[in-house]
Specification:
Helices cover 31% and strands 29% of the residues. The chain has 136 residues and is of the alpha+beta class. The strands form two sheets. A four-stranded antiparallel beta sheet has the order 1-8-3-6. A four-stranded antiparallel beta sheet has the order 2-7-4-5, with no helix packed on it.
Length: 136
C-alpha cells in the first residue's frame, strides 16, 4: 500500500503548519483505502478509529439523516477519531467510487509521542480551532 502524497496532506488544516519532514513522516503512516459508490464509510453513532483524506471521488456528510455537506478531493473527515475513540458525529456515504488515504489512532499516537514538533504543532492547531469555535 502506498503512503499518502505530501501535497494532499498539506491541504489539511490540521497539518498545515507541519514542515516537509514532519509531513513526510506522517505520510508514511497513511494507507490507501477505496470505497465503492453507495457504501457507508463512517456511521454516525458508531465507533470510529480512522481519519481520511479524499484523493478522488465524492461523498455526502449527513447528521440524523439530514445532508450537511458534500466532500471531494482534498477534503477530510474523522480527525477527532485520531485522538478520541468516541462515536462518529456524522455518517459519510460515498457518492462515487472514493479513493482516500486513511490513518488510524494506533498509527498516529506513536508518531505524535515520538515527535515533539508534531505534537506541539497539533496542540497549537487544536487550540486555534477551539478558540475560533468559542468565538462563534
Amino acid at each position: 500500500m502506498a503512503e499518502a502524497p505530501v501535497e494532499l496532506l498539506q491541504r489539511v488544516p490540521l497539518f498545515a503548519d507541519f514542515d516537509r519532514g514532519d509531513l513526510q513522516r506522517l505520510a508514511r503512516s497513511f494507507k490507501e483505502r477505496s470505497f465503492d459508490a453507495g457504501s457507508t464509510v463512517a456511521q454516525e453513532g458508531k465507533g470510529g478509529v480512522g481519519f481520511f483524506v479524499i484523493e478522488s471521488g465524492g461523498a455526502t456528510v449527513s447528521v440524523r439523516d439530514e445532508e450537511r455537506a458534500k466532500l471531494g478531493p482534498g477534503d477530510y473527515f474523522g480527525e477527532i477519531a485520531l485522538i478520541d475513540d468516541g462515536a462518529r458525529s456524522a455518517t459519510i456515504t460515498a457518492d462515487s467510487d472514493l479513493h482516500c488515504y486513511g490513518l488510524t489512532s494506533w498509527e498516529f499516537r506513536p508518531l505524535v509521542e515520538s515527535n515533539a514538533s508534531i505534537a506541539w504543532k497539533l496542540l497549537e492547531t487544536l487550540a486555534k480551532r477551539l478558540r475560533a469555535a468559542q468565538q462563534r
